[in-house]
Amino acid sequence: MRPLRSRILIASAIAVSLCAVRVHLAAQHGSRSALRELPNTVAKPLPANSHSSPKPDQEHLAQITIDYPEDGSIFPPEITPPTFIWHDASPIATAWQIDVVFSDGSAAMRLKVPGERMRIGEIDPRCVSNTNKPPELTPRQASAWTWKPDGATWEAIKQHSREHPATVTITGWERAGAEAPASRGKVAILTSQDPVGAPIFYRDVPLMPSEVQKGVIKPLAPNAIPLIAWRLRYIGEPGSHLLFTGLHSCANCHSFSRDGKTLGMDLDGPANDKGLYVLASIKPQMSIRNQDTISWASFKDPTVDQPRIGFMSQVSPDGQYVVTMVKGPQGDKGNYYVANFKSYSFLQVFYPTRGILAWYNRATGQMHALPGADDPRYVHTGAVWSPDGRYLVYAQALARDPYPEGRKLAEYANDPNETPIQYDLYRIPFNGGQGGRPEPIAGASANGMSNSFPKVSPDGRWIVFVRAHNGLLMRPDSQLYIVPAQGGVARRMTCNTPLMNSWHTFSPNGRWLAFSSKSRSPYTGLFLTHLDAQGNDSPAIYVDNTTAANRAVNIPEFVNIPPGGLLKVDLPAAEFFRLFDLAAELAAKGHDEEAIVEWKKALELNPEDPFANNDLGTHLLKKGQLDQAILCFEKAVQVKPDYADAQNNLGIALMQGGKLEEASVHLQKAQEDDRKNLQTYYNLGALFYTQGKIPEALAQWHAGLQIDSDNPPLLNQTAWVLATNPAASVRNGNEAVELAERAAKISGGKDPVVLDTLAAAYAEAGRFPEAVETARQALALAAQPLADEVKIHLALYQSKRPFHETP
């Protein structure tokens, strides 16, 4: 029997409210305490009359506008000195006097400062690329003046403004010896009695956009991934602690248990696999090993369609469970809208359009859908736990196709071409995993906006969430809102900045909220706001020195650990991913021998990995090392029995070894596990064909064509058998022509094998002139030994006879 017409394919897996502050300030306005001068740098002497107390503003004085801190700002007691920023409307002011008057009866301060222009901070040269620009000051920033108090001055200001506001007055002077000031402005600030009390864990990322690729979550180029760093910042320290960097896989969304003992983190695996998750115990010196990772794709449960990605996963307060979003029963239609942009300021839009909530039990190692949040008519996403773990708050919207037919892909954030979706917030009981009835949260639903990314305060009284016009999180128009946890009137928070506010996180004591914003630069910064017992918040406080000026801070998360509780994180598990991806890159370039070496190195670190075993086996088989390939495939299916690609490849390898019955078992298992994997239909048909079971082979190929009617190997092989089989009962010239013409069109009429098949189909249908012409085209393109076969076929067609294979 003639060999198959197309090569057998081998798969490869790849406390004080602001109102109260201002009332108190008004009551204290007339108070004057003795002035106390502190040393400071002086650019030029100020006139003697500058040492008098600041007088009430006069009509002729130009206005000084203090941009930062804003009036009513509340600082943490442990924060390092901020940089005051102001604009002076006087064109003649060249030096400034700072007066700080306290309302607690303490002596006031006077400082003479020259004022300095704003500066761009340190640049990381590794993060400069042709897809971004170095940070630059806006015209308003470039025209601003600044002053940063020294440590002693700032500590004194904080000490005397604890729950008693201080008034900071900035007065501008023309020159030494001037008789009157030129300008004046003032601002009231406060230092809270509430400490932040915990460090902030955050991701420090380059903004180097990757190529645009529809549907692929890939905002950064591969060579930028190792530049991502994870840092820990204590507010009372001048800089951050580097925890880990240099990974060749992307670690991203994360959460911590309420007691600060467990870390959960999404971790990209080999070949851009988004389905891995880290669950590890927090220690001063952490080491994340293979046994600390799980694969969402490894779970098989009738309530959960085979998950590939766990989105925005959250560890429960006690660290025993993880809730995540996985694809629902209709996930094959697409789960996410993804658009990657060349603009580095907003380089990606990414939000789910389908999905259900599922929960993972660490004790049992099992995963199940959460009843009540598993309706395939909706997308359920971004679930977070209440502090007691009794209920979940999540975002829900009507499910939809991520890419409706005829709709252009967005080219920028908030492009009208984005697939529209607006989420509402819902609350659902966890009930030990039994779920319950979800209820919309009044104030965060049915408001004509998209409500997402809820966070529940540690006392369970409040929910802070993101509101935007479309999608979730990193939107230019995203604003922070606060609403009672049981629902009610939602309030826009005072801390909102003009551009993008999201990724918020409550401190363990519930008095501080950290969040990310792009208000100062496209390179996202870190901010804080204070919340009192009534949920009132204060203007945003900027946390400086978080990273280089051309890098961004996102996904901040408070960690409930003491000083020294987390110093260093090692990820030996990630070295396996680096080797795996290196092997895949080498294989893609045709360097099979080098790829085999790297896959073997990866398997030395993790011998049980089914994907590495499958890919190594694929390339060993390609090199003719049949026995070693079979061992690799057997290991892959032993570890992961429902791994259809590995079952398929094992079946092919066993076929080549002449073990047809064993091959049949594995090929049928592959088909059972993945009904849409076309290679299983092709290869199982090939097995039947080899066994002489022609009707069974055709049945497999026809079934595959029902899934994809334009698959070239299936089209070509089916057409060849229908045109040339020795049994008249099998042959069907007209169908063979239809299939072969489609295959030829898809191949552009340049594949000699397909043209040979089409010529045979024309001949079987009695269309000999077309058969002759097509055979000549095939002969012109064919190499040996195919050319000799085509010559034989051509001679038959010229004599008006079809070609039939020998029985």
Describe the structure.
The protein has 807 residues and is α+β, with helices and mostly antiparallel strands. Strands 1, 2, 3, 4, 5, 6, 7, 8, 9 and 10 form a 10-stranded mixed sheet that branches. The longest helix is centred in the last third of the chain and has 17 residues, at 572-588. The N and C termini lie close together (7 Å). The model is unreliable at 6-57 (pLDDT under 50).
Task: Give the gist of this structure.
By secondary structure, the protein is α+β, with helices and mostly antiparallel strands.
In terms of topology, how is this protein built?
Layout: H1 18-28, E1 35-37, E2 62-68, E3 73-75, E4 84-88, E5 95-102, E6 108-113, E7 116-117, H2 139-142, E8 145-147, H3 151-159, E9 166-173, E10 183-191, E11 200-206, E12 229-233, E13 241-245, E14 251-256, E15 262-267, E16 276-281, E17 285-287, E18 293-295, E19 311-315, E20 321-326, E21 336-340, E22 348-352, E23 356-361, E24 366-369, E25 378-385, E26 391-398, E27 424-429, E28 439-440, E29 450-456, E30 462-468, E31 479-484, E32 491-492, E33 501-506, E34 512-517, E35 525-530, E36 541-543, E37 551-558, E38 568-570, H4 572-588, H5 592-605, H6 610-622, H7 626-639, H8 644-656, H9 660-673, H10 678-690, H11 694-707, H12 712-724, H13 733-746, H14 752-764, H15 768-781, H16 786-798
Parallel strand pairs: 1-6, 2-10, 3-10, 17-38
Antiparallel strand pairs: 2-4, 4-8, 5-6, 5-9, 7-8, 9-10, 11-12, 11-37, 12-13, 14-15, 15-16, 16-18, 19-20, 20-23, 21-22, 23-24, 25-26, 26-27, 27-28, 29-30, 30-31, 31-32, 33-34, 34-35, 35-36
